[in-house]
Write a structure and sequence with these properties.
Its main location: membrane. The chain is α/β, with parallel strands linked by helices. The protein contains seven helices and seven strands. Helix 5 links the parallel strand 5 and strand 6. The structure holds guanosine-5'-triphosphate (GTP) and magnesium ion.
Length: about 230
């Protein structure tokens, strides 16, 4: 269930976990449109290239828990690299986006993954970090499709990424699902990390200065709890 709530703050007294999500991928794959569709259910046919980064918040419920997602939309064009990379550190989730009608945007996913690992300072392995691969523009006709779903699946298996999906920001297909799946994956890895730290039997030690178990393990800390 998704609340139609731009700010995410001040509506209820419930506890919400704040997660920073960064969206990366080649210029033009639809990152800004995915964010707009998710946050405000809006699609822009003539979206301009992003310069640097922009972020917006939305509160959602996943498996009965509240999450305030702080979504950072980055500029995919190479010339903006130095403007976007400082914002990777502290991310809890990374969405790697490509367009299914643009083979080169898919081929470059590995480059984006490596750029994120480097600048976010993720050191403990890809399979321990909540990556989500999103093949956007699933609405295009089959003659324009350049990447199949099987190729997406295979790439993710080869690269130890457990969560992937095809979306259409244009037709509002699987957009909410993509963000929900990413949060769910974050939760699974968080639980795994808590077990590894032996913290499940010592709940008082789970939250250290606002950081959660997995974030301590992953070295890109930053899951925080907030009142919404
Ligand atoms: N057919 C189709 N077009 C889309 C979809 N999502 C975005 N577009 C179009 O693709 C173009 C680029 O979209 P953006 O969201 O600006 O792309 P971006 O990834 O943010 O690009 P940069 O900001 O340069 O990194 C726009 O013309 C959108 O209308 C989609 O799901 N389907
Ligand atoms: Mg953009």
């Amino acid at each position: 269930m998704v609340e139609d709530n731009d700010s995410g703050y001040g509506r209820t007294a419930n506890k919400s976990t704040l997660l920073k999500i960064v969206i990366l991928g080649e210029g033009g794959v639809g990152k800004s449109c995915l964010m707009s569709r998710f946050i405000s259910n809006h699609f822009d046919d003539h979206s301009f290239h992003t310069i640097g980064v922009e972020f917006r918040n939305k509160t959602i419920e996943v498996n009965g828990k509240q999450y305030t997602l702080q979504i950072w939309d980055t500029a995919g064009q190479e010339r903006f690299k130095s403007l976007r990379t400082p914002f990777y550190r502290g991310s809890d989730i990374c969405i790697l986006a490509y367009a299914i009608d643009d083979r080169s945007s898919f081929n470059n996913i590995k480059m984006w993954l490596n750029e994120f690992l480097h600048y976010a300072g993720v050191k403990n392995g890809i399979d321990r970090y909540p990556f989500m691969v999103v093949g956007n523009k699933s609405d295009v006709s089959s003659k324009d499709r350049e990447v199949t779903y099987d190729q997406l699946k295979q790439w993710c298996e080869d690269n130890k990424i457990a969560t992937y999906i095809e979306t259409s920001a244009k037709n509002d297909n699987n957009v909410v699902e993509a963000f929900s799946m990413a949060v769910q994956r974050w939760g699974e890895l968080e639980q795994r990390a808590e077990k590894e730290l032996g913290m499940l039997h010592h709940p008082d030690t789970v939250t250290l200065h606002g950081s959660t178990a997995a974030s301590s393990i992953r070295s890109t800390c930053c899951s925080r709890f907030t009142d919404v």
